[in-house]
Structures are given as structure tokens and as C-alpha cells.
Design brief:
Blueprint: H1 3-20, E1 36-37, E2 42-44, E3 62-63, E4 73-77, E5 101-105, E6 111-118, E7 126-135, E8 146-152, E9 158-166, E10 176-183, E11 191-197, E12 206-218, E13 221-225, E14 232-236, E15 243-249, E16 256-263, E17 271-272, E18 280-283, E19 290-300, E20 311-312, E21 316-321, E22 325-327, E23 332-335, E24 340-341, E25 345-347, E26 352-356, E27 370-371, E28 377-384, E29 390-400, E30 408-409, E31 420-421, E32 431-436, E33 442-447, E34 452-453, E35 456-457, E36 460-461, E37 465-473, E38 481-487
Length: 489
């Protein structure tokens, strides 16, 4: 590498280090990067639980499968409860939720309880190391955990160290993040992370450990949406707005390369956008709804081939919201003087409803209103989300004087009156229709559905003659009916 490039690179990292590092007192909680961070190039989460950990030094602590390990033992678990006379908190999940954590019951002798070698870091780069710790003890007078984090070279040269001081007892389980900043060596990015428990075991000094990360820290990178005061915009599907994203960064970046990235899973994974390699990016409208997160990743040219050296801006977000799902329900029949309830439904993001017109309706803002029109009428259901996304659907109500039952039909396949039907027998009336022959045999039945008898029973044409029908209504306001009909062939 040319000397000029080396000098520029060193100057960049010195400035980044001055920006990110804050003085950490011996007993203070570590502060996080005040500039911009890259993605976690190391992320130790302890998985979903079970089995001994390779991070525990030999001859220090012994693995124990129970969620209540004794002094000098540890476990990897996703919960702990009712331990040692209920002197421990009940911890029902890890720091981030749903996974496992390392649970340590300190040995009587202070010493190392976690050591790992990290090989995926960028050389001569400032990193933020962080870990989440929880004091699992309840009694106030118990021994409190006191942890020292040490970053070392493989040869044992200490690069940085931080001491948590006494981690206080809390009334309920509280995860706290601790950490430090360090700069990897110029010629070797391999480091050793060591965690040492400085307090003795006994009644207390019991802790949970989770989500250990290493993230590159650099000077501030800021992304914004042109013409917007917020870093988030909300639009509806079909919106054709074009948005321009702008980024600015500190002058401490000497020979930076730029890359805009997109995440469609709320920042969990990021993908490079092809060709988006300047400080601005123009976002075109998208066809589908979803959450679209954007950021600018920056890396010095001298280490551009190492992905773990990238620093990222804040996210700018375009949320594309769907239209509400709106269904005014099926067309209905109403017997004059007998109100009905419309069978509508809708779904969406915090939606409001309204009907139009509001004639003969008890509440225009109710999803399933009661209506009592005096003549045929059409209604429209409108729905709008809190983001302004709207949709609508129509239905009709036919008003009849009563239920007319035909007394004859001719199933002779001439296309005229071939089926016995009962007009306007709406399914909402919950009518149960039965037809019997002169021997009392049931030859046709229908319950809560459209009535249409073709004159057959089990596929066999029935003889001409008089049949008896019975209609039993379950809706509560229509009277049951009984009568005769004639089958003519």
C-alpha cells in the first residue's frame, strides 16, 4: 500500500476514534458509538438453548443442563425460574426475545468465565464491542457481579479494557448493555475477548449474558429525504411519488466509496442497490405494499474489499400501505317493516368506516348497521385507514311486501317454470324448507339457502300431483308457512 494511502487511512481512523470514544469511568455503564455504526460482524446470541458453550475457558466453569446451576456452574437456556428458594428473578426469554442466553452462577474464586477469539474484523479500525448483562439476584444484600471486559491481541497485549463495576440488584429482570471501543492492529485484525468476574461467589454474583456484538464505528453519516422533515414517509399503494434521498458525512472520510442499500424486513437484512453509488439516490414508485428501508454504506477505498469495514447511515423509510379490504356484504332482501342488519366486513390499518347514503340506517359509522328502507335502495361502504388509504364496496337491499310461494311448476325441460323456486327467500331469513309427497315422504329440503327443486328425488323424477311444503323460519319475525304445490308434467 502506498505511504500516502496509509497515512490517509491512519488519519481517518484516528479521527473516527476520537469521535467515537468517550471516557469510561471505572464504575460507569459504557456509552455507545456517537458516530455511525456498521452491521454486527460478530453477533453471539447463544442460539435457541441447550448444550455446553465453547466460549467458557477450560477448568473454569462446568456446564449444567438445569436452568438453576450451582456455584461454579453455568448453563445455556431460554428461561430460569424458582431457583434457590425464589432468590433469582424469573427470566422468561433472552435479551432480544425468543432465544437463549448464558446463565452463570459464579464460582467462589474470581476469574475468567468467557473467552473467544474473533477473526472477522477489519484491520486498523475502530470497533464498538457490546454485551448485555442481567443480574438475576433479587436480595439487595447479595454479592453483585463485577465484570471486566478485555480486548487483547493473540499474544496477550491489551488493546482496551472496561469494568462494569457492581451491577446492581433490580426489582424486576433488567438487561443492561455494557461495552467499550478499541482499534484493531494495523497488521492483524485478530483479537481475543476476555470476560473476567472480579467478585467472589456465594450468595449472589449470578448473571445472565447475551447478544455480544462487534460493530465498526466511524464518523457520522446522515441520510435524509429531500423535502421531508422526517426520515419516514407513509404512502398508499399506487402512489406515484418519486423520492430523493441525500446523504452527508464527516470530512474525516478521506477516499470513501458509497453504496445505497435496501431492506424489506425492517433492517434485519440489507442488500446493495445496483448502480446506487453516489451520495444521492432517487427512489422510483414500487408496485407492491411493504416497508422499504434505505441507508448509505460507506467504506474507505483502502479496505473496500472487506465488507466488515463498512459504516452505515441512519435509515430512511418509505412505508407503502395497502388499501383496506372492504366488503359491503351480499345483496339482501327485506320484508317490509322488518329491519335487517347488513352483513359487511372490512380489515386494514386503523380504519374508519362510513355508509352512504345514510337513509333508513341506524348508524352510518357502524360496520354492520341496521337498515329499514321502505323501497329498494343501494348502499356503499367506504373505508379509510389512518394513512389515507381508501376503498369502497356496494350492495343493494330489495324491499318486498312478503314471501310469495308459487303453487305449481312444470319440470319438463322446456326452459319455462322448470324449477319450483321461492323468490326473495333471503338466506338471512334462515328458512328451512321441506317438501313431502302424499305418503309423507320427504322429497326435497333446503336450509338457509336458495330454494330450487327440479321435481326429482335421489335423481328419480317424481310423479305429477299435489305435494305439501312447510317453511320454518329461524329469524324470529317471519311466520312459519304451510301449503301445497302441484307438480305438472
Amino acid at each position: 500500500m502506498p505511504k500516502s494511502t496509509v497515512l490517509l487511512s491512519r488519519l481517518f481512523y484516528l479521527r473516527s476514534l476520537l469521535l467515537c470514544i468517550t471516557i469510561l469511568s471505572a464504575n460507569a455503564k459504557a456509552q455507545l458509538c456517537s458516530g455511525s455504526l456498521g452491521d454486527a460482524v460478530v453477533n453471539i446470541t447463544f442460539g435457541s438453548g441447550g448444550g455446553p458453550s465453547s466460549y467458557v475457558p477450560a477448568n473454569s466453569y462446568t456446564y449444567f443442563s438445569s436452568p438453576c446451576p450451582d456455584d461454579g456452574f453455568y448453563t445455556v437456556t431460554n428461561q430460569t425460574s424458582n431457583c434457590f428458594g425464589d432468590s433469582w428473578h424469573t427470566v422468561s426469554s433472552d435479551h432480544s426475545g425468543g432465544g437463549a442466553f448464558m446463565l452463570v452462577n459464579a464460582s467462589y474464586t474470581p476469574g475468567d468465565f468467557f473467552i473467544t477469539t474473533v477473526t472477522d474484523l477489519c484491520p486498523n479500525t475502530t470497533y464498538e464491542f457490546a454485551a448485555w448483562i442481567l443480574n438475576v439476584m433479587k436480595p439487595l444484600r447479595s454479592i453483585r457481579p463485577d465484570i471486566t471486559f478485555s480486548i487483547e491481541t493473540p499474544a496477550g497485549v491489551q488493546l482496551s479494557t472496561f469494568n462494569t463495576g457492581n451491577i446492581d440488584v433490580t426489582g424486576s429482570p433488567v438487561w443492561k448493555q455494557y461495552g467499550l471501543f478499541f482499534t484493531t492492529p494495523q497488521n492483524n485484525a485478530v483479537i481475543v475477548l476476555r470476560m473476567t468476574n472480579n467478585a467472589p461467589g456465594g450468595i449472589g454474583n449470578d448473571l445472565a449474558l447475551d447478544d455480544i456484538t462487534f460493530r465498526p464505528c466511524g464518523s457520522k453519516i446522515s441520510a435524509s429525504i429531500l423535502g421531508n422533515n422526517s426520515d419516514t414517509v407513509n404512502v398508499c399503494i399506487g402512489n406515484t411519488n418519486v423520492y430523493q434521498f441525500n446523504a452527508s458525512l464527516s470530512s474525516s472520510y478521506q477516499l470513501p466509496l458509497y453504496q445505497w442499500q435496501l431492506s424489506t424486513d425492517r433492517g434485519i437484512t440489507w442488500n446493495d442497490i445496483a448502480g446506487a453509488t453516489t451520495l444521492t439516490y432517487t427512489r422510483q414508485p414500487t408496485l407492491g405494499d411493504g416497508n422499504y428501508w434505505y441507508r448509505l454504506a460507506v467504506v474507505e477505498t483502502s479496505v473496500a474489499s472487506i465488507r466488515s469495514c463498512r459504516i452505515a447511515s441512519n435509515s430512511v423509510i418509505v412505508n407503502v400501505h395497502p388499501q383496506p379490504i372492504t366488503n359491503a356484504g351480499p345483496d339482501r332482501v327485506m320484508v317490509m317493516g322488518n329491519p335487517i342488519t347488513l352483513d359487511a366486513n372490512a380489515d386494514g390499518e386503523q380504519i374508519n368506516y362510513s355508509w352512504s347514503p345514510g337513509s333508513y340506517m341506524d348508524d352510518v359509522n357502524k360496520l354492520q348497521p341496521v337498515v329499514s328502507p321502505i323501497a329498494d335502495i343501494g348502499y356503499t361502504l367506504y373505508a379509510q385507514s389512518v394513512y389515507g388509504c381508501a376503498n369502497q364496496d356496494d350492495m343493494k337491499v330489495k324491499v318486498v311486501a312478503g314471501i310469495f310461494v308459487p303453487n305449481a311448476f312444470t319440470p319438463n325441460a322446456d326452459g319455462k317454470n322448470d324449477n319450483w323456486k321461492i323468490p326473495f327467500l333471503d338466506p338471512s331469513f334462515r328458512g328451512e324448507v321441506s317438501v313431502f309427497n302424499r305418503w309423507g315422504q320427504l322429497v326435497y329440503a333446503s336450509a338457509g339457502s336458495v330454494v330450487s327443486w327440479d321435481g326429482n328425488f335421489n335423481g328419480v323424477p317424481q310423479a305429477p300431483g299435489v305435494y305439501v311444503y312447510m317453511i320454518s323460519f329461524k329469524s324470529g319475525y317471519l311466520k312459519n308457512r304451510r301449503g301445497t304445490l302441484t307438480l305438472i308434467r
